[in-house]
Design brief:
This protein has about 110 residues and is an all-alpha fold. The protein has helices at about 5-10, 20-30, 35-50, 65-75, 80-90, 95. This is DNA polymerase delta subunit 4.
């Protein structure tokens, strides 16, 4: 077995600093900025995912988010009112109704 290192095999390259590429990144970010509704949807889904992953409110598999919220409320666990409001506002949308694990057979 030889005594060579992995770093001996691969050439080291200098990375471009963030400050020099900032002007180019700013231009592409402005062109690809999502619409307000898309970012709101993403924020809503992130809030609901964090609700799904909070074990304090009990298990989330096999029931909808609203059922889980109601069960947590019934047991005095004080689930976030913002989650309930969001679920009521989007009652017909499966992206909001179903939990994080909806696509998996658990």
């Amino acid at each position: 077995m030889s005594n060579t290192l992995v770093t001996d095999t691969y050439k080291q390259t200098k990375r471009v600093s963030r400050s020099s590429s900032k002007s180019a990144d700013t231009k592409t970010c402005a062109d690809s900025a999502p619409s307000t509704s898309e970012s709101k949807f993403e924020r809503d889904i992130e809030l609901l995912k964090s609700f799904d992953l909070t074990l304090e409110y009990g298990p989330c598999t096999g029931i909808s988010r609203l059922e889980r919220w109601s069960r947590a409320e019934k047991h005095g666990l004080n689930p976030p009112q913002s989650v309930y409001n969001l679920l009521q506002l989007h009652a017909d949308d499966d992206n909001y109704k179903q939990n994080l694990w909806k696509d998996y057979d658990l």
